[in-house]
TrEMBL record:
Keywords: DNA damage, DNA repair, Glycosidase, Hydrolase, Lyase, Multifunctional enzyme. Pfam families: HhH-GPD, OGG_N. One of its GO terms (biological process) is base-excision repair. SMART domains: ENDO3c (SM00478). Residues 124-306 form the HhH-GPD domain. It catalyses: 2'-deoxyribonucleotide-(2'-deoxyribose 5'-phosphate)-2'-deoxyribonucleotide-DNA = a 3'-end 2'-deoxyribonucleotide-(2,3-dehydro-2,3-deoxyribose 5'-phosphate)-DNA + a 5'-end 5'-phospho-2'-deoxyribonucleoside-DNA + H(+). This is DNA-(apurinic or apyrimidinic site) lyase. CDD domains: ENDO3c (cd00056). Its EC number is 4.2.99.18.
Amino acid sequence: MDYDHLEPTDGGLKLIGVRNFKPKHIFECGQCFRWDMVNEGRYLGIVRGKVLEVSEEDTGIFLHNVNEEDFRTVFEDYFDLKREYGPIKEELSKDPLLKESVEFGHGIRILNQEPFETLISFIISANNGIPRIKAAVAKIAEKWGTPISYNGRTYHAFPSPLQLSKASEADLRGIGIGFRAKYVARTVRAVYEAECIERESLTRKLTDDEALSLEQSLDRIASLPHKLCHDALQCFEGVGPKVADCIMLFSMGKQEAFPVDVWVKKAMSFFYKAPEMSLPMTREFGQDKFGRLSGFAQQYLFYNARENKVKVE
């Protein structure tokens, strides 16, 4: 584990002996869209229907509005705290070119997010900037999600497939996600239908068409091996190779995924002098180079490249 134990505090918990955990690195490395900085070193997020604040203080890392049961059932896994990142960083740092990025983003942890929220969020992310993605995801939650009260304010959980199935394509266009509204509406419907059929399968034999629809169950897709999982996710409209890799890495435990966007492509060219390649070729190059640790390498490279705005000559 990457922490020693918990210490109760007024309204939360302190992580004692926590390692490889820096809120800025975790919440600003492009993997999540429901965390906002409320002041320096303090972030507020909505995770699985709960508001959580995380602060980095002189005396350590604090989790606010959480008890030990919440931590054990949700947040220990969410923050990937059972995994020791020291050996991962040590292994990746054997590559002197990657070592710089590992040191720059030393506090990154890959979050284990909820698959449906991650799927919809990254469909919205296509050809979009992070502030606009965050605004769109927040609007979806506000319009269709369950309200949550915290410190006198109302926040909203990300809606379930059932809740979001009530949104039409026109409704989704109305919150400003443009051409992606069609993809989101159709994907929500597919996921919701798969969930319904999954429940039906417990009590009766499915028809061939129902069995086919069941293939779009996110639980089933997450259980598939890497290549099959990657292919299955691309059956959803609006999900291409890069978005599929993001969903796999950030919500399905596939750490060998290597999402490639413009920043990762620049990073591979800048640090590795990789020849001009397409995004799929860059993805293959990265996976061949970093193997089972590809996802961790990708996060360190992305964060370094974007924060330092690397430029390729």
